[in-house]
Amino acid sequence: MTETMPESHAVLRTVAMPSDVNGAGDIFGGWVLSQMDIAGGIIAIERAGGRVATVAVEAMKFIRPVKINDILCIYGEVESVGTTSIAVRLDAWVLRGYKGASEKVTEGVFTFVALDEEGKKRPIHNT
């Protein structure tokens, strides 16, 4: 697990709101997972040059809780490209409070499959 914040721009940034809390008062893990899926989808769409669908989430690791008002920043990169699928490695960091202290909160690998207009698998062209 790397604890060095990426130097690249975040694919997605959003604020954790009170409506997203679980019973313990932390942000619900499913909300974080959905934000990561959105960010991974953006990366996969750009690489595939079109429609994709999530087919797997691997190695998902929740490291620290996300709190209300944290700014969730998701960074990602293509890990591998197959004939019809793309694996995207994602790291989620938060900026806590007004001082902007950053902490890594979640990481995972999301796999997407490229789809044609009818929703069937299609090949991904090399770029």
TrEMBL record:
Entries under InterPro entries matching the protein: Cytosol_ACT, HOTDOG_ACOT, Thioestr_dom
Ranges of residues in domain HotDog ACOT-type: 6-118
UniProt keyword annotation of Magnesium present: no
Pfam family, one: 4HBT
PANTHER family: ACYL COENZYME A THIOESTER HYDROLASE, ACYL-COA THIOESTER HYDROLASE YCIA
Family (UniProt): Belongs to the acyl coenzyme A hydrolase family.
Name the record gives this protein: Acyl-CoA thioesterase
